[in-house]
Design goal:
Keywords (chain A): ATP-binding, Nucleotide-binding, Transport
Helix content of chain B: over 70%
Radius of gyration of chain A: 19 Å
Order of helices and strands of chain B: HHHHHHHHHHH
Helix content of chain A: 25-40%
Structural class of chain A: alpha/beta
CATH class of one domain in chain B: Mainly Alpha
Protein name (chain A): ABC transporter ATP-binding protein
Number of strands of chain B: 0
Number of domains of chain A: 2
Number of helices of chain A: 7
Shape of chain A: globular
Organism (chain A): Paenibacillus paeoniae
Oligomer: heterodimer
GO molecular function (chain A): ATP binding; ATP hydrolysis activity
Strand content of chain B: under 5%
Structural class of chain B: mainly alpha
CATH superfamily of one domain in chain B: MetI-like
Number of strands of chain A: 10
Order of helices and strands of chain A: EEEHEEEHHHEHEHEEH
Strand content of chain A: 25-35%
Number of helices of chain B: 11
InterPro entries (chain A): AAA+_ATPase (IPR003593), ABC_transporter-like_ATP-bd (IPR003439), ABC_transporter-like_CS (IPR017871), ABC_transporter_ATP-bind (IPR050166), P-loop_NTPase (IPR027417)
CATH class of the largest domain in chain A: Alpha Beta
Distance between the termini of chain A: 17 Å
CATH architecture of the largest domain in chain A: 3-Layer(aba) Sandwich
């Protein structure tokens, strides 16, 4: 088995608000292996996005240990690709220039990789289009290509398909799986969509709020491509749903680890 | 009842409107109003109701224009006026851009420079003219300096505004992709501030023309502003009009030039186009 690439241990995060301190993350522990696709699911306020921002290095104000390839994370870098809920493209750049960003398209190897990635995210023909000409799904695919160009060790996705309609979303999920199967990029995928979590993840990390903690981690053994209508899929989905229904009752275990 | 009748009428009117307009080529649409007004003006003047010194006919103004042009006098005036306006604009605009960038990027520059500049900005420029004359006399220097001072503020304010208007979300993206400081400036902040900077340049050009006339009405013996002032003294109203038309034409041309740049550089903008 491959070694753990990303290790989170005893991670605590508090916010201070006018009405006192709020514990956003409580003793989070998580190990991710090279090439895994982890989905993190939980209701709003459970700290799933906060966890992702910490791993990205966008938030360095935390206690505990967050290590990528053995190195403590202390700031953003290209090793940690990030996809936001919005595409966040530069409106004055064409699709190909958005993907290239601060890298020069004049370099043959960059040009070649950009062309490859545009094909991978199924945007061939739109190289010269401006963001305003793209649909939400297309723009988000540009953002994915932009992150992949930097060959990140881990790709962090923060509810990337949350703003898309149901049809576009399921198409995007297939595109993402396709990319994952071809590139084997390690991914941490935050979502609030149960279906999405079970459809995509090798493992589903379930989080609960007040304070934000990991309630349970469920391994999904179903082979890809998964059939949503299949009985085994529905059973697993049901299992996750039941976990969250239990939360309404007072939580018994505050188990942080896996 | 009356309400519905009004409605029907307005619908038919709007349907008819594009009909006659569509017969005229599109680039000429902007000319319809001026041409109609000049035609009425010429007609009324021809009837002899208006005194020549009060409002000369367009044909008289045109004749005066060609006489002045033929003698070469007109071009001398235009040349010196253009020179003053452009020099002042370049001086003020460049300084405005540089200081706007400095204040936009640096907290220290913002805290130390901006309050003073904002205070200076509220002083009506015309109030400074006596001071300029006392300090620098009536020469070219004080004219160019006055225009420069006026051209400075629009570029300065809008550059500053544009830089601070950069989307924090895009800034986060540049951090993740490890843009260098220089790359953040050249590849994120300047492009996103460009619409504001160009707006500043357009406003600044307008102010330059305005102050040019003011500057040329201080003692001088050349320039379009002088030509107007001189014609007024001798009641040559048609020459006053020639000067005004010249300002309108040159002003319009310079504005169009900047708009052309906008159209090329800001193609990406997703805004309401009417």
């Amino acid at each position: 088995m491959a070694a753990d690439m990303l290790v989170v241990q005893e991670l605590n995060k508090t916010f201070s608000t006018p009405s006192g301190t709020v514990i956003a993350l409580d003793r989070i522990g998580l190990q991710v292996k090279q090439g895994e696709l982890i989905t993190i699911i939980g209701p709003s306020g459970c700290g799933k996005s906060t966890l992702l921002k910490i791993v990205a290095g966008l938030d360095t104000d935390y206690e505990g240990s967050v290590r990528l390839n053995g190195k403590q994370i202390d700031g953003p870098s290209i090793e940690k690709g990030f996809i936001f809920q919005e595409p966040r493209l530069f409106p004055w750049l064409t699709v190909e220039k958005n993907i290239a960003g601060n890298l020069s398209l004049k370099k043959p190897d960059i040009r070649e990789k950009v062309t490859e990635l545009i094909e991978l995210v199924r945007l061939t023909g739109f190289e010269k289009a401006y963001p305003r000409e793209l649909s939400g799904g297309m723009a988000q695919r540009v953002a994915i290509a932009r992150a992949l160009l930097r060959n990140p060790d881990v790709l962090l996705l923060d509810e990337p398909f949350g703003a898309l309609d149901a049809f576009t979303r399921s198409h995007m999920q297939e595109v993402l799986l396709d990319i994952w199967q071809k590139n084997r990029t390690t991914m941490l995928f935050v979502t609030h969509d149960l279906d999405e979590a079970v459809f995509l993840g090798n493992r589903v990390v379930m989080m609960n709020p007040r304070p934000g903690h990991i309630r349970k981690v469920l391994t999904i053994d179903l082979p890809y491509p998964r059939k949503r209508a299949s009985q085994s899929f529905q059973e697993l989905r049901h299992h996750v749903l039941k976990e969250f229904e239990k939360v309404e009752e007072p939580a018994i275990d505050h188990g942080a680890g896996i | 009842m009356s309400r519905s009748a009004w409605k029907v009428k307005s619908v038919t009117a709007s349907e008819e409107a594009p009909d006659w307009l569509s017969r005229i080529p599109k680039p000429l649409h902007g000319w319809i109003l001026p041409v109609v007004l000049i035609a009425i003006w010429q007609f009324v003047s021809g009837m002899g109701y208006v005194s020549e010194t009060f409002l000369p006919a367009p044909s008289v103004i045109a004749k005066s224009f060609f006489t002045l042009a033929a003698s070469g006098e007109l071009f001398q005036h235009i040349a010196i006026s253009m020179y003053r306006a452009m020099l002042g604009f370049l001086l003020g605009g460049t300084l405005g851009l540089l200081l706007g960038l400095a204040v936009g990027f640096g907290k220290l520059a913002e805290k130390t420079l901006d309050p003073s500049l904002q205070m200076l900005r509220t002083v009506p420029l015309l109030a400074v003219i006596p001071l300029f004359i006392l300090w620098f006399g009536y020469g070219e220097f004080s004219k160019v300096l006055l225009i420069g001072l006026g051209a400075f503020f629009p570029v300065y304010v809008n550059t500053f505004l544009g830089i601070r208007g950069t989307d924090a979300k895009l800034y986060e993206v540049s951090r993740i992709f490890q843009y260098t400081k220089l790359q953040q400036v050249t590849k994120l902040i300047i492009p996103s501030a460009l619409p504001n900077i160009l707006l500043g340049v357009r406003l600044s050009l307008g102010v330059s023309w305005l102050l040019l006339v003011v500057a040329e009405m201080m003692a001088t013996n050349r320039g379009v502003g002088y030509m107007i002032q001189d014609a007024r003294v001798y009641s040559e109203t048609e020459i006053v009009f020639v000067g005004i038309v010249l300002f309108a034409l040159v002003g319009k041309l310079s504005d169009s030039a900047v708009r052309l740049l906008e159209a090329r550089w800001l193609l990406w903008r997703d805004t309401y186009r009417g």
